[in-house]
Amino acid sequence: MPDKKWIPQPKRPRTPIPEQKPEERRRNFKEVALGYTAELAIQEAYRCLQCKNPLCVEGCPVGIDIPGFIRHIGEGRFEEAYYTLKKYNFLPAICGRVCPQESQCEKFCIMGKRFKPVAIGRLERFAADYFMESGKKEDFKIDPPSGKKVAIIGSGPAGLTCAGELAKKGHKVTIFEALHKPGGVLVYGIPEFRLPKRIVDIEVENLKKMGVEIKTSAIIGKLYTIDELLEEEGFDAVFIGTGAGLPYFMGIPGENLNGVYSANEFLTRVNLMRAYMFPEADTPVKIGEKVAVVGCGNTALDAARTALRLGAKETHIVYRRSKGEIPAREEEVQHAIEEGVQFNLLTNPIEIIGDENGWVKALKCIRTRCGEPDESGRRRPIPIEGSEFEFPVDTVIMAIGQGPNPLIQETQPDIEVKRWGIIKIDEEGRTSKKGVFAGGDIVTGGATVILAMGQGKKAAQAIDEYLKTGKWA
């Protein structure tokens, strides 16, 4: 189709995305946002100014040609929009759903200076969904075989991206996944109503079509050490993308009571063991009538909204800071409020109280006020003396963050680590051990899907260079 003059419509209001009604979705696990139709996508695309110096691209960790794919959508060239995305982003359907666009690409959108920014993430999701639903087979362009083998440890967003980039270069790639299903945090940590499993499955199948082998239930550190992968199994390089799956607790009395979960355990039981499909799946998870979730990040909101869908009568977020310091996405906070999640801000738990049978019966908290900003840049919560109180709950879910699983670090002590067991890398993703690279949450702590993908992509470039030259800078 020949290029036409692009006449943007900046004053048109940002196009809303159709969603399930709150009173319906709070009791089902179907996706909340239903996605743009072709008509709505074109309408929103024409809000893009097609800037000559697109700052939105600078805000994207993988550098997508955002004006390019949006223009294709506006002109009805949806397949071209998809392939433009795929040049830069191996997982567009996933990123279009879970990336925090408001703090990345959309934050820098020029439209946002006077109006609402262009809905870049929603358009990305539309292009990816359109191609998936079209039934067309993807055209994978793969270089001739290089004769080199790479082991990827972990199949989360960093591992999948690194694997895809290396497979395109003609390298033989094998992913080792500790769990029985590939996808990492995308399948065990994000609920079905935000990211349907079928979307992740399609992306994983695409990798297999590119020749990537995936070995599940394969724990590196138990099955093989990294040294064994390099010296005995014939791999020329290794990428560590094992994420941050070790949950943190507060260290307060009562955390060992029955009815206390980490958000990681709770969401894994629901997502990966299919508790959300009970009774069709024989794997229910016990949930009480009144649930308290400690923390206010995206994981905390996922846990709170999941508890509601499993039948809890009340779900409370308990957060020690104020509304202005909430780390979760604004859209997810709004969805949670619409569904009935209750927010208890400036409130910090100090004890979990149990009954005579060892089950949770109440949460003891103290009121807080905000002080000066701490090292995180957020205002420090200060306890208010004498403000302690109890409120009855029968389930407590801790969602205050997570760190790296230490198995790799313990079995491969010549890989240098930093505080909390985070693996130290250089700017290209190289670790202190020759031939071993790392990226994603294992080097950043808990971060975003797109940031992990960006690191997987960067490391893949460095691995490709290493395999071609043998140089270890």
From the structure above, extract its key features:
473 residues; alpha/beta; Fumarate Reductase Iron-sulfur Protein, Chain B, domain 2; FAD/NAD(P)-binding domain; 3 domains; five-stranded parallel β-sheet; 17 helices; 16 strands; 33% helix; EC 1.4.1.14; oxidoreductase; SudA-like; FAD/NAD-binding_dom; Glutamate synthase (NADPH/NADH) small chain
Report on the structure:
InterPro entries: DPD_II (IPR028261), FAD/NAD-bd_sf (IPR036188), FAD/NAD-binding_dom (IPR023753), Helical_ferredxn (IPR009051), SudA-like (IPR006004). There is one protein chain. 48% of the residues are buried. The chain is built from 17 helices and 16 strands. By secondary structure, the protein is of the alpha/beta class. The longest helix is centred in the last third of the chain and has 21 residues, at 449-469. The chain folds into three domains: 22-134, Orthogonal Bundle (Fumarate Reductase Iron-sulfur Protein, Chain B, domain 2), CATH 1.10.1060; 149-245 and 404-469, FAD/NAD(P)-binding domain, CATH 3.50.50; 247-398, 3-Layer(bba) Sandwich (FAD/NAD(P)-binding domain). The protein has helices at residues 22-25, 38-45, 55-58, 66-74, 78-88, 92-98, 120-134, 157-168, 185-188, 197-209, 226-231, 263-271, 298-309, 330-339, 407-411, 441-444, 449-469, and strands at 149-153, 172-176, 213-215, 237-240, 246-247, 260-262, 290-294, 314-318, 342-344, 347-354, 360-373, 379-383, 389-392, 395-398, 402-403, 436-438.
